[in-house]
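User: Predict the complex with S-adenosylmethionine.
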Amino acid sequence: MTPAARISAAIEVLDAILDGAHAEKALGGWARRSRFAGSKDRAALRDHVFGVLRCWRSYAALGGAGTGRGLMIGALRAQGSDPEEFFTGEGHAPEPLSAAERAAGSAPTGAARLDLPDWLWPLFEASLGDAAEDAALALRSRAPVMLRVNLRQGDPAQAIAHLANEGIVAQPHDIASTALHVTEGERKISGSACYNDGLVELQDGSSQAAMARLEIAPGARVMDYCAGGGGKVLALAARVEGAFFAHDTAPQRMKDLPVRAERAGVRVDIVETARLRDEGPFDLVLCDAPCSGSGTWRRTPEAKWALTPERLNELTSIQRQILQDAAPLVTPGGVLVYATCSLFADENQATISHFLNKNPEWEIIDETRFAISEAGDGFYISQLRKKS
Ligand SMILES: C[S@@+](CC[C@H](N)C(=O)[O-])C[C@H]1O[C@@H](n2cnc3c(N)ncnc32)[C@H](O)[C@@H]1O
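Assistant: Here is the predicted structure with S-adenosylmethionine placed in the model:
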């Protein structure tokens, strides 16, 4: 496909999203209808669509309309290209710009410049102060592809060499001793032997760094209380011999965990909610709570536009309840860990303050906020221990 034909396809997919389709579904639907497209075309289309999803408001302003066409015109103007070079009407190119389209479009201002819904900007400012604008702007770019080296199977130098043999270029990154930043061949990872044999896992740099902060003594009993796919417990189990457990109120979210654990060469026992008390107590209970995900919106830009104040309130209630429910599972002298990939104080520091107010026998022993960076998403982690 020509670059202009790819833009036509992006317009079609963006219009489907505007009609209510999720981006993945709209992209999948387009791919099924367009058997002529190769993998490079599909990748380029995906890049267009996700690029627009991250920068929806500013591109709509620059393009003069929040339609598929307007957004792609805005995207081209944002990168300094002339839309008229692509909107020629020739072959599969989009129709030429009308006089109205040529005249439309203005520089975005306010929250539109930062590509945030209006109601979220005050929350960014209240949570991040001087760092708020940088965080919002960082969310307009692609996220890095990061790998975690599974130290049970090899070291970073070996992983880099093996990956290179499979056409994947990666460099160590000092965000974490296990972190590799992939700079070429990202799309080959899931099919590579390095990944399928468990030498590397896909894991964001901040998540790796946050897990590295947790002290785990050999033989410790560790519970990942909100395990989901199990990325966090796998990172912990790779570090030290111990007894590792996973729980989630939605057990189907853990369906891939046994396979991932086997691939990594570690053991993780899944615990049903009804058996939590019998299996406990645990030396460390990690609550990687459901959250707005605002620190990861580079990867999931649709969520930035879908979040509502009501949903945020609902999430903070769930987070508070999770900490309250998980605390009794911690052994005397053990550690309760609370983590989110949110940037918002309401989901982070305020949740911890609420817990400490209700449970004054606990205290914070460590609290770290990870800013969005070239190696990691926004992440928050707090460790609590009962006062002795
Ligand atoms: C942020 S995700 C966890 C991601 C996971 N730790 C990882 O690294 O891949 C939060 C998880 O918490 C689960 N969850 C929601 N409410 C819960 C509750 N009350 N108790 C335990 N888990 C809950 C969700 O089903 C979801 O899988």
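The longest strand covers residues 330-340.
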